[in-house]
Amino acid sequence: MSTLLVKNAYVLVTMDDGRREITGGGLFARDGVIESVGVMQELPGAADRVFDAAGMLVLPGLVNSHHHLYQSLTRAVPGAQDVPLFDWLRCLYPIWANLDPASVRVATTVGLLELVKSGCTTGFDHQYLWPNASRVDDQVEGARAVGIRFHASRGSMSLGEKDGGLPPDSVVQDHDTILEDTARVIDAFHDPRTGSMLQIAVAPCSPFTVTEELMRDSAALAREKGVRLHTHIAETKDEERFTLDRFGKRPVEYAASLDWLGEDVWLAHAVFVDSDEITRMAETGTGVAHCPSSNMRLASGIAPIAGYLASRVPVGLGLDGSASNDSGNLLAETRQAMLLGRLSVSPEIGQGPQMSARTALEMATRGGAEVLGRNDIGALEPGRMADFFTLDLGRVEFSGALHDPVAAALMCAPVPARHVYVGGEPVVEDCHHRSIDEGRLVEQHNRLAAELMR
Fold first, then answer.
1. Domains of the chain
2. pLDDT for the residue numbered 353
3. How high is the pLDDT of residue 323?
């Protein structure tokens, strides 16, 4: 059994039920599980590993609830820089059709490395096309090198252009192939235990890429296997019109008709929903992955986060695709959520209260854990995993902001995490990953990106 003592934090942010922030605080963990949190007099005086956090802000590890890691290969692609979602997808689908196992594996490693260096300790990914024999297995292999908790999904697209969908027929799969491989992936990789490093979700892509039959059968399979469900809903006005024109239903009503509401479901974006739909989501415990930067980058709209929070809809933060965000920095995304939340206006709901730094941090930690269905991460309190990161308050970016270092984490410019621990083990030290040769990885990633474009 190994023990860890974190001591002397300038401030330790717990995100526990009391939202305690402990000046001069620390924590004690055994085998990766926190046993006690408090001021130093309340903690054991020794441990196998002692980490002195003097001069640092200690925060719970951030939780990313929506991403497309493979898209890190197609950032800033000409032709996809200044267009809305549907045109953006039409530009990129033919490029993504060239993905293969190596590019999926390396993109996963790069994307998760970028995440963990921003303080993220748990990441969900939504890959929904699997060309050229690429599989979830390739993502799992790519994730192992990073040491992050990884929630992968067996995403899918089954509604091609010939059947009225958006994607070209070359990147969709048939119904039975999708379900058979989804069952295989769950059986091979899903670990539901406390402290799990790897879990699987069932994740058909969206109403405009997947048949109604596959949506229903995916929900049934997920519940049979005891895993969670995820999809895109109401990201743009185009998508809202698509569900109204094709199915005669608003987006959330359409999801409900397919058994896609419930405590085991979280929806990406959910921008164009009305107050009745928010109420329906709150009543069923359906969660949301809020992706502010992507929604701004594609000019999609502003999600009604004030309404969600007021109605107690579970809300986590998502970076979305590395090609619709062009960044994998979750701390920066948390800041973006705070800033955009101050502009959020809905005709049905009205102006919400200003989004505070602490509310945004809560979405990025406890909120993300809730939408992923986990009660063992997202806070620093006894019984949860020792997943945390530190920010060096001695950096010039924080100079003059120590009146409130917790708010400064977002009010000031985002900085790299100095240290990141997952399950009580160091993954990033002094802003560098402990084992990954970053230069070599970036060189390999850039080569694969160039080949993909060719």
1. 3-60+377-433 (2.30.40.10), 62-371 (3.20.20.140)
2. 53
3. 85
